[in-house]
Amino acid sequence: MRWLELVKRDPVPWLLDPENPSARLLTLRHIFKKPEASLAEERARLLAWRPITLLREHWNRVNFWGREADPYFGGAMGNFGTLYLFSQMGVPLFPEVEPACENLLNRGRGDDGRFVLEGPRAAPWLCYTGMALQIMGHFGYGNDLRVRSAWVALLQTVLLRPEMLECPLADGGCHHGLVKALAGLLSMPAEQRESNEEQAIAVLSERLLNYSYDFGRHDAEWLQPSFPRYYRSDLVELCRVLAQTPYRTHPRFQELLHRMVAVQNTEGRWIKSRPTPALSEERIHQPSRWLTFEAIHTLTLTYGDDIYAS
Questions:
Q1: Percent of the chain scoring above 90 in pLDDT
Q2: CB burial class (10 A; 0-12, 13-18, 19+) of residue 62?
Q3: Coil, helix or strand at residue 270
Q4: Which of 75, 99, 113, 258 is disulfide-compatible with 149, CB 3.0–4.6 A?
């Protein structure tokens, strides 16, 4: 099957509209597979985009975008949330990001290396560690020893202490956190992974695939994609993450994928269904270039692409 057979209309030309230089850059990088050396002008356009320049204007030397003493203060609007926002948008490294990354590495980790909130809020760690690994991989910190310690802590938990994957705040298993953790593991380039990384990826993938999603009731929120995200996930992100694993051919994944395909509109675009606390560049209940890019990328990862890939 060709991925184009699953969309009602090809949205890729719409994704290339310079109105959203982030979605355009991500499309050129992941769908057209343009080499990074050819994308310098696109990266510069993204850094000059008004939503990014506004965030840079709100940065300060002491607290960055939140509080220096607590990288997680402010949630999606604070230091951690802003770094995660930039990584989702494909924003390249720029000077203001580096001290915020160092602050997260120095103040945002527990003694065992996990990225975790301090004090009585310390229970939810899986999603934060997965998100932090994505941030660090995106900004080039993947080989930093502090990042490696978080990587090892996550691997040991998945492979040796699976009971710690439970989230007390979610009354047990949190599949949002599992998606973030799996995405974090996948942020390591495939050629650098060893057998234990592949095994952990398999464990998390199978947990996500074996779960019985009740989209009609308890899990209806998964059918309401939104961008940018924080610790909550949705069906588009779930499918895009799983499509990066060997489980893309699994029958259960195919079921989830066709459920994702079913929520496109008549123009082959995916709608932003929930409000976002950060970067409300796209309006709720309107087509989202970011979500549409992610959905198309998921399809090309699953079925290959002989149309746009270089």
A1: 85
A2: exposed
A3: strand
A4: 113
